[in-house]
Amino acid sequence: MLKSLILNRSPPKTFPIKRYFSLLNEDEIMLQQMVSRFSNDFIKPKVREMDDKCRLDSVLLNELFENGLMGIEIPIEYGGSGMNFVSSCLAIEEIAKIDPSVAVMVDVQNTLLNNLLGFWGNEKQKSKYFPQLACNKVASFCLSENSAGSDAFSLTTSAKLSEDKSFYTINGEKMWISNAEQAEIFFVFANVDKSLGYKGITCFIVEKELESGIVIGPKEEKLGIRASSTCPVSFVDCKVPVENVLGEIGQGYKYAIDILNEGRIGIGAQMVGLSTGCLEHVMPYLFERVQFGKKIGDFQAVEHQYAQMATEIEAARSLIYHAARLKESGKPFIKEAAMGKLFSSQVANKTASLCVELLGGVGYTKAFLAEKYYRDCKIGAIYEGTSNIQLNTIAKMVKSQ
Amino acid sequence: MRVMVAVKRVVDYAVKIRLTPDKTNVELKNVKMSMNPFCENALEEAVRLKEKKIASEIVAVSIGPKQAQETLRSALAMGADRAILITTDMRTDNEIQPLTIAKILQKTAQEVKPDLILMGKQSIDGDNCLTGPMLGGLLGWPQGTFASKIEVDWANKTIEVERETDSGTQVLSMKLPSVVTADLRLNEPRYATLPNIMKAKKKNPSMSKMLAV
ipTM of this predicted complex? Predict the structure, then answer.
């Protein structure tokens, strides 16, 4: 584009619309409005209760399914909503404005699991599981283990092929599995042949009701996103038919990397939503609270603080949706996705922290939600690739350029 | 039974209203617009009638600028079968008058031939509360306004409307076709689910320009 500008000295006639992340198409706008309304009407009243009880409301979970929010990108013929990746990000962002815990459940289902099945599942698996994932079953992504976090491929969960080659037996313990309490379908990464190293890692689809070998451990007591369940999941002689191998044997490591690259954008959207929600939560208070005869939101120091926050949130949002549009157009997006996740988690951290301070004493109490956003934002820098790992990825890509 | 639902695109109820710079009118530029809440109640009732298999077709009608297509798309996503938009450049919050709207709806009704017309009791921008009754008068049809409950007996072509009045609840029994305006307690409007939003994408509202009435 630039070259032609210099050579021909005439302005380009059209810009392809998709290049501009900020131009949403009609469906995306409708979805954004609908999810925003849904979150405000349905999720908002339950936020505190879900956080205190560490429990996702089951009626809410049903409503998420009913409204098509758990199968956003699943094609319509399988019972999903047939929308695009940016739509998933928009939905996650809008929900995160109200409750990042619910957003993470929607994010994991849509960006990690549905797409994992969508890219590498065969027709039989898709016809069986897509309708379930879209309409009534929550799924979990089982990769991490006690000694395998950032170094995921050192996982030790094993999958042994049976004598008659009709099923695999999975043994191992997974840790930090989101949605584990509600999940009925587990996408498990296990190694079929340890001598091959990470090239033996394979992805298996395991159904809870068919297997007795799945043991869901007690929920972790977390600092934040408490309504989202995070449990250890043990597989004890868990038998999985060979038809339930996702994609090819030994390619699991590749699928995990690829899907996490995308899931990262979803987390970025969650962090952007969190930051926006937190700021929107605090702004009205700044114009109600009067000190020294003036609304505190009118003091220049405070103005500069929220102006800075708003700018950074906008920058994070731009990066996230830019990465999302790149992915949609099939262009390389790994660097942008890593940058987006890194930056948006940093912005969320700063924003939530500042918001607690701006509210003053009351921000430190449970009377306002700022303290919840503050607790919730910490996870952004940790899950789906820690900030240090993101920095490694970005450095690698920058160096190679 | 065919139901015609008149919906209006108005400023979203949660938006803080601002005046234009010259302070002569309400600022509508870049302001979030949605379907009038009472029109949502009306549309929801129509969709419920369809689910009970009493109504066979729902036609959503709106009068407004080209952007009102979005409102009609939400109507389609909520369950309407087809949509008609009558475009106008006049402001629908305070320039175009209820009598004019009623006359346009009268003409539309003569073409659509509904057995029941449902609409919101009033719009949250004009708050005139006149269009429904005027439409009933122009068509010469019975009207049940401020409905909090509707029961249709299609076999006998009658409708029973429970209305909320200042002196209490009144139950009217009317012959179809009739005009009914919806109040808040009529029902709880549904969210347009994502699959329905995608299906609605395929149905395009048919547009016609408003001629002098």
Answer: 0.70
